[in-house]
Structures are given as structure tokens and as C-alpha cells.
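Board notes, transcribed. Complex of a protein with adenosine-5'-diphosphate.
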Amino acid sequence: MSTILDSEIKFLPGVGPRRAELLQKELGITTFRDMLYTFPFRYVDRSKFYSVREIDSTNTYIQLRGHVTSIQEVGAQRAKRLVATFTDGTGTIDLVFFKGIKWMQDKLKVGGEYIVFGKPSLFNHEYNLVHPEVDLATEEKLQQSTGHFLGVYNGTENLRSGGLGNKAIAKLQAALLAKVLPEIRETLPEYLLLQRRLCPLKFALQNIHFPQDIHSLAKAQERLKFEELFFLQLSMLKQKSIRMRGAAGAVFKRIGTAFNQTYNNIPFPLTGAQKRVLHEIRDDVGSGRQMNRLLQGDVGSGKTLVAILAAMMAVDNGYQACIMAPTEVLAVQHYNGVFKYLKDTGVEVALLTGNTKTAERRRIHAGLEDGSIHIIFGTHALIEDTVQFKNLGLAVIDEQHRFGVEQRARLWNKSDLAPHILVMTATPIPRTLAMTLYGDLDVSVLDELPPGRKPIQTVHWTETQRGDLYRFMREQIALGRQIFIVYPLIKESEKMDYKNLIDGYVTITEEFPQPQYITAVVHGKQKPEDKAFDMELFVKGKANILVATSVIEVGVDVPNASVMVIESAERFGLSQLHQLRGRVGRGADKSYCILMTDYKMSDDARKRIDMMCQTNDGFELAEADMRMRGPGDFEGTRQSGLAIDLHIADLAKDSPVLELARSTAAAILEADPLLEAPQNAILVTGLKNLKIETKDFSNIS
Ligand code: ADP
Ligand code: MG
């Protein structure tokens, strides 16, 4: 049913075709609804002077009027800051400056009266203002400082030069609200509003754009965040409950020779976590329902073995399995690695990638169709339509975030029964994000590393220490260790990045000349044969050093490599750095990760590097990463291809709201699984309007 909200934005008075195009291009706004749900990203509250005692949230920019009582410099070097204590008679608050310290020192005088304007932040349970605007409280300033409480919308240079600055946008929003507000229907059931003390939708939309006061704004935000997360959770939990009762899956009841013999061939005991996860998988695949499981495990936690044993469960029950990797290197590694476990199992395996020769490819296609190949390893080549199975029972997808949703969905059409799906990722996902991205999946966690792993020592060195780096590398090579050197490769700067890599490679071959040292190099511009050759040199231990792009980020397993040097480390994200570091520390030797950066770098980069030096825990880093970059940029969100487009909720900050939304949705579905009760009809409508493709969620895997 289409409503006024579906009207094209050009029909809003004051917009017209030219501005409509601009809004579309710059902000992705095409309809009234898009516009209405484009909320201010911050607020400026100059409606009044707040008192220090009154501050109770970090929501908004506010202004205070009072005196500075003391000024002092604290901390040293990077932590150096200027702290001015400020009071208005109701309480005191610190004004903190990390930058422009000299300038502030000149400007601020103890005893002076000031108007300060900024956004309170919480630090050690106390509010303070970091880098507030500060003005001497002159008559003129005092007059300017009263009157308005404004939303600030995301703007761009193009918007401004096209006459759509913040004021103009606010004016359009006002016109839009006047037009559509009477037509807005409540989207949450009455009982829910009462139960959760949420404000009505109309009130929320009005106040999110034009807050009456700070409390109305908080109410509006609370309601809209809840609603957004609630419908997502409701959608996913409903999918999940349908799946739990619906989608039949192949039943793997038997445990036979394939599994048992493979198990016996493994030269070490499984970790407790591996055993637990295998039990979880076994329960799923024996249940008659289709499994959709996400396996999270830090690098080196032994996911591959779990995948292989799960595949053996399929084989023991007359089904085939496929194990899909994001890169050729990894697929080859999985494939080569499996043979040591296959002795006396009678299991036939094959490898299919983009580089498989035609004759071999034909043989494999035939083998998959007649069932004589039991387990197929490979890359994206596996999902091509020409690949057909006799009876695919399990699909394992390694390093899931490299695969788009669509690609995953194509696996489905390969057999009558939807195969069981095991998605494995070494990018730990913070709980809130997992609940949002994968809310309908069952999640297993390999939270234990195989015994004997020594923690990796991570250090940060700059260019001036390059000599030390080479010295250290020589020592390590003399001890028989191997070394990775990784260069960033980013699309936008691809040319430069390749140049840096090649220059780096040349320097290394000069510093570490043959025949004493052998250096291999692997990157995307090489011929596949060359790449395979150099990779092999390193994997077999014939090369001491491997210079590579981040291709080796995922999965490559060389236990003898004990040093990971990351060049231009400031250009990598936290999870990526962690992934790379995980390539070492797999053998018995003490391992090192050396982060090389310029002396100068941004604050954010420095934070990332510091975090890396402080912890080896992938989950801790993932949480930190999400806090620093926000979930939108968080690794895995975008690549996962899942369209979560949150307007207002922030997964990094709103986890209490998310938990509440999830438990509320679960309780409603518990009582009314198909949402058939009359009071829930409104929720069915809400789900239909949900912008996400719920299809994606159910198919993910
Ligand atoms: P990841 O989870 O990063 O994919 P892998 O599956 O590549 O990790 O395993 C890393 C290394 O640990 C491999 O060399 C593998 O043989 C080894 N490994 C796996 N499980 C165990 C175990 N239970 N005990 C000892 N080593 C193990
Ligand atoms: Mg792996």
C-alpha cells in the first residue's frame, strides 16, 4: 500500500527536480520517507544556559555560563592536556584541551567569566567538555547565545553550493512534517508503547527534527532507536523460528568410517572448544532441520579441522560436502592439508578453482554429478551454475565476509534439500553486531587455542628503527625462522601500493642477498604460476622471507614463520592487523609482530597501533574497532553484503537498547509465533515495510 510517504521528493514544495537530484545524489533521498528518516546527527542547544548540575546525558551540545577557577597542564607527551576547572555555582566541570594548548592558555584567565559550548562526555564517571567553544561572557555574546535548539544534518559541499545548507534542509523538514504528520500511523502496538514507556511515533518524528527541549529529544531518540532495532530483531527471530520448524535438512545420523578414521588420523587431541563445536554441529545435522551456523574463532583456533570433520559426517551418511575459501591460495592450502587425514578413509577429494584446467574440470564436474567425489575444495568457482552435485549435504564457507550474500544464496540451488551451512570467520564480531547481522543464525565460538601457542609479542617501530628491524630479521633467520613482510594494498591507491611493495622487495633482496637468503614475493599482479611457485617456496621452508600484499591475510598456515612485519601498519584496520598477526605464532617458537609506521600518524592510527601492542585478544580488538570506527565501517558489515541501514541506532553505543529490543521481540514471538493476534497485526505491517531484504537474512547461510 503506497502512502504519502512514498511520494517522490521532488514533489515537496521547495524542492523541485534540480534539488531532488542533489538530495538523491548527496544523501540518497528519493522519497518523502527517506527525507523524514534523515535525522540530524547532532543538536545544538542554545535555547538556554544549562546548569552544571543538570547535565545528565552526552546527547547534545549545550551551553554553560560560569567562571574558570583553575587552569593546569597535566600528563606528558601524547597524553598532555590542558584542564580548566569551570563552575557555575551549581557544580564544577572540567574543560579539556588536547590541542591548541598554548592558545587556550593565553585565552583563559582564572576568575574570568565565560560562555562555554560543547558536548558533555563521560570520563571516569564524570562529565567533562572536550574542546568546547569558549567565549568571554560579554553582553553581545550573551545575547547571541539564547534562543535556539537546532538539529544539524549531514551536509556536503555540493549541497551547500546547491542552496541546501543546514538551514534550508531544516526548512524542508519543517514543510515535510507539516504535510505528512497528520497521515503518520503508529507503527508499534499500543501495549508495547505502554509497557516500554515509549512515546508515540508522531511525537518522536516531530521532536527528532525539532526538539521542544532536551527531554523530548531523548524520548524521541529512545523510541526511534528501539523501533529500528526491534523490527530488525523481530524479523530475524521470526525467520529463525520459521526455519527451526520448517526447512528440512539432510539427516546425518551415522558416524562411520570416514569420520572415525579421520579422527584417528589426527596427530593431536582436539581442543575442548573443537569438541564442543563438533557436538553442536552434530546435534544440528542430526535433527532433520537445516543447519545455519556461524563459527567464530580467532585465527589459529583450528577451524579447518572442524570443517573437515563436519564434512566427514556428511560423507558417512551418503552426502557430499564442499569447502569454499575466498582465495586460491587458501583453497589450495585446505586441499593440500587434508590428505594427511584421509589415510584409510576411502574418501575422495578434489580441488576446483578458476585455474583448474579444462580436462580436470570436466572430470571433477562428472565426479560431483555421479557422487564419486565426496568432498570438493575450492573458490568461487564452486558456485558456478555448471557445478552440479549428486547430493550436496553440507557447504562450509571459510572467512565468510569475503562472500557476498548473493553468492552464498547460489549454493542453495545445487541440491533438492537445502544443504547444511557452516560459515566460518576469524573476524570476531562484537556481540551487538553479530546479533544484528546474524540474528537468525546459531553461533558457535572456538574460544580456545590449541595448547602450546605462545603469545605473540607485538611492537611498534618507526622508520628510524629500520636498521634494528633488519638486524632482528637476520637473528631470527639465523635461528631458522621464517618472516612475513606485508604491504597494504588498497584499491584507491593500488598503483602506488604495488610500487611500494616492489620497492620493498628490491630493498629486501639487497639487504638479504642470495644465495645466503631466499626471498619470495606474492601479489595479485603475478601470473598464477609465479605466485604458486613463490608461495610454495615459502610454505616448504625454502624461502626465508615472504614479501606479500594482504592476500596472505586470511588463512595461510606456515608454522615455522615466527615474525610478521607489517609495513605502513597505520593504513590497516584493527581487525585486519589482527588477522595478519595471526599468521604467526602457530609453531613452537616465540613469535613477533612488528608494526612499522611513519613517525607521524593520525590519532586514530596511533590508537589502533597501541591497542595491537596491548592485546592479543581478537574479541577485545573487535569491540574496540567498532567503538572507534562505528559499525558502518566495521569490517564485515559492508563486505557481508547485508543491507543493514540503521538511521539512528548505533550498534557501538546502543547495546542496552538492542538487548531490550531483542528480548521484547523474543517475548512477543514466544506468545504469538506467527504474529496472528489482532494486537500484533500492526507488527506484520511493520515487517513488510522493513527496508532490509529479509530474504538475505534467511538465506545467509
Ligand atoms: P584457523 O582457525 O585460523 O583456520 P587452522 O585451522 O588453520 O586455524 O589451524 C591452525 C593450526 O593449528 C593448523 O596448523 C592446525 O593443524 C593446528 N591445529 C588445529 N587444531 C589443533 C589442535 N587441537 N591441537 C594442535 N594443533 C591444532
Ligand atoms: Mg582458516
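Residues 236 and 351 are 35 Å apart (CA to CA). The domain at 257-287+302-425 is CATH 3.40.50.300 (Rossmann fold).
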